[in-house]
Amino acid sequence: MTSVRGAEEDLVLPGARTGREPERSLRPGPRRLSPEQVASRQRDRLLDGVARTVAANGYTGARISDICRAAGVTRPVFYELFSGKEDAVLAAFRGGTETVVRAMQRAYEERGGAVAWQAAVRSGLEVLLTLLAQNPAFATMVVEIESVGPAGRRARSELLASFRRFFADAPPGPPEVARAELVDAVVGAVHAAVLRAVDEGRFTGTTGTTGTARSTGAAETADAGDGLRGLLDVLVHVVVSPFGCPTDPERAAGKDGEAGEDGGGAPVGAGGGTAKRRSGAPLDS
């Protein structure tokens, strides 16, 4: 697999910023930016507005006027860049999921890829959970994309198909089981587990996607970190066990966080992924 190395900006997911940040505003008067640069900035702000508005109101309740207000962009500009709400939501979802998969692939490769498949898979999954935890608005979109209808389901299918690349280096698995169907089942199980975690508010600091937001103290933050570590262990188990790999976290990581004799996985917080370095807040912080 080819190494993917993107600029730091490439790891910014829709919803990570507000459209009304002063440094992102376009002031009146003579501009040195080209029309293309202006449109690109406005589009990025609208994608942030999309993610935040959908996270707050759900896809059905999100209005274009609310998206524009969150982005600090006028309605006519919105329609210059997108054909409507569905188009904008799909653009935010696809752009964000492509960023997540790139970051996962980089972590996977840096941890060894085919040479240490189980450890590499653990690093990729850690980056997935870390990015969702750092970007709760985008995490909510992972659930809300289902509400878009057929186009949303196609976008979801594209995302799940992109995860198949991480199984190219997997062990053969049971000879009597069709490999393609096994991979699809494993990917579907991981997706379902992540959806449930988002819906329960484990990435968003709420009582659930339809619950009320609550403040989190230090103890609750620590509990959330423990919960995500537990979820990571579950996802690693779901992914590697069908291919005959050991799934005991201590055996996989080694007592001191080093890979064991079986080439096991890195512990949480040792994934080597760009997402962890960017925030300074890995799952075990």
- Major sheet details: none
How many runs of DSSP E, i.e. beta strands?
0
Would you list the SSEs in sequence order as H and E? Answer: HHHHHHHHHHH
Uncertain parts: 1-9, 206-222, 249-281
Count of helical segments? Answer: 11
Distance between the termini: 30 Å
**How would you describe the shape?**
elongated
Radius of gyration: 20 Å
Question: How much is the average pLDDT?
Answer: 79
The helicity comes to: 55-70%
Proportion of residues in β-strands: under 5%
Helix vs. strand class: mainly alpha
Topology:
Blueprint: H1 35-61, H2 64-71, H3 75-81, H4 85-110, H5 117-134, H6 136-144, H7 150-162, H8 179-199, H9 218-240, H10 249-253, H11 274-279
Structural write-up:
Helices cover 57% and strands 0% of the residues. The protein has helices at residues 35-61, 64-71, 75-81, 85-110, 117-134, 136-144, 150-162, 179-199, 218-240, 249-253, 274-279. α1 (35-61) crosses α4, α4 packs parallel to α7 and α5 runs antiparallel to α9. It is elongated, with a radius of gyration of 20 Å.
